[in-house]
Amino acid sequence: MTSAAAAGAAPGPAAPRNRKSVTGTRRAVAALFLLPTLVLLGALVVYPIGYSIVRSFCNASGDGFAGVDNYRALFTDDGIRTALKNNVVWVVFAPAVSTALGLIFAVLTERVRWGTAFKLVVFMPMAISMLAAGIIFRLVYDQDPAKGVANAVWVGVHDTFAQSSAFPKAHPGRHSPLTSDRGGFITTGTVHTGKSVMLPLVGVAPDQMPDGAKRAVAAKPEPGKVTGTTWQDFTRGKGVGRLGAPDPAERGYSGMKIEAVKDGRVVATAKAAADGTFTLPATADGARLRLPAGNFKEPYNGVDWLGPSLVTPAIIGSYVWMWAGFAMVLIAAGLAGVPRELLEAARVDGASEWQVFRRITVPLLAPVLAVVTVTLMINVLKVFDLVYIISPGSSQDDANVLALELYRKGFAEGQPGIASAIAVFLLLLVIPVMLFNVRRLRREVRR
Questions:
Q1: Angle of helix 416-446 relative to helix 69-76, nearest 10 degrees?
Q2: pLDDT digit string, tens, across residues 75-134
Q3: Which of 2, 209, 240, 317 is the most exposed place for a label (fewest CB within 10 A)?
Q4: What is the rounded distance in angstroms from the CA atom of residue 67 to the CA atom of residue 65?
């Protein structure tokens, strides 16, 4: 009976689909919570984009319609064309190098005990602002080896294999028997055996003389040989010292190379001792003595990193220093999800580590590598701080990029219409990369 009554009972009322809350419908609550975000997006994103698009079709004052003149300037203005070319260089090389270094660091530090510490050190530049990094690398790339770390290392390596001269400023003084010759100096007359030759020079500061230089002495004549002395013929103090003869306070040009030249050929060579004396064999009889240009070579001052030809690669190097750690961390996270059994199976089958890396690790990491590369591509399209701070005024035009040119046109040159056109052009360049990234992420979610 009870079951029959229950079976014949009318069904109860259906539960309402949209239950109302205290604040109203669910849709209204959602809109209420989204409103602050929508207002911020409209004020900070939508409105600036719309205003930039409208402003890009106006003249410099903003009160007249300029048509596509501002966009035509993107391809006719020399500064913008240089910036566009440099942006292409940035997009091609900066993400590729950063991602490659991140991949190498992530793979090589996977098995070592100190890998975490190494990753921490490599990632630390990400904690530094672009402004601070620009100041750091402006000092790193300083031309003076005493200030710039890059040139200090470069000059140190160079001087290890090619020692610079100690006498770059030396030159003949008054009443000297020497005259200029192809960057060096040569005697005006010939020399003969059994006689001593004086080769005085001036122009080297006392504190710049070689450490091994000793008090200069006049060489004694030797039968069958040509002897001589080359020294700093200068003594501090007005009227002190004798010209053409070594004085007690004067030191010899230690290590100076001397060549005996006869009929355009070098017939003998010698190197001055610590006291400046030298000896040539009998073959030097009747020759002229030459101090070759190598004795007076200016010291190597390193590479002009911030010059017109190297400023863009140098700035890209500072960018890689900052962002290689970012790439490494993301790739290392992807590497942690790679099935180890696949790698071990390949090794058991006889694959070398290079084959495992190239045929298994890299293909499995392809989605992560794509994320890193695309993210960095978007980032370098907007690079501004590093270029503005690191490049000096003399080469800033050569290092110019679109974001910097936008700033210069809008604020330094008073052409906001062209600056807005550059901003819109940058947006159009970024949109395809963003769409590619979104589509790729959607495909990954479906999997």
A1: 80
A2: 888 999 999 999 999 999 999 999 999 999 999 888 788 888 898 999 999 989 999 999
A3: 2
A4: 6
Residue 151 near residue 144 (C-beta atoms within 8 A) = yes
Q: Hunting for tokens 């601070």 — which residue is that? A: 132
The whole-angstrom separation of Cα 68 and Cα 73 is 9
Position with higher pLDDT, 9 vs 74? 74
Strand partners, 199: 230
- DSSP letter (8 states) at residue 75: H
| Those residues with Cβ within 8 angstroms of residue 307's Cβ, 6 or more apart along the chain or in another chain | 395
Cα–Cα distance, 221 to 291 (Å, whole number): 20
Structural domains for the chain? 69-152+305-446 (1.10.3720.10), 178-296 (no CATH)
Neighbours of 289 (CB within 10 A): 26
Helix (H, G, I), strand (E, B) or coil at 211: coil
Return the ∠ at Cα 233 (arms to 229 and 238), rounded to 5°: 160
Phi, psi of 302 (to 5 degrees): 85, -165
What CA–CA distance (Å, rounded) separates 416 from 423? 10
Nearest to 441 by CA among 377, 371, 373: 371
Beta strands in 212-293 (DSSP E): 226-232, 257-262, 265-271, 277-280, 288-291
Q: What is the pTM of this model?
A: 0.75
- Cα separation, 117 vs 108, in Å, equals 13
Two structure tokens written together for 386 = 């590093």
Residue count of the chain: 447
Closest CA to 267 of 253, 252, 251, 287: 287
The position carrying tokens 């017109």 is: 308
Report d(CA 322, CA 125) in Å as an integer. Answer: 5
In this predicted model, which residue has the larger pLDDT, 176 or 46? 46
Strands (E), 233-380: 257-262, 265-271, 277-280, 288-291
- Dist CA 306 CA 315 (whole Å): 9
- Pairing type for strands 196-201 and 226-232 reads parallel
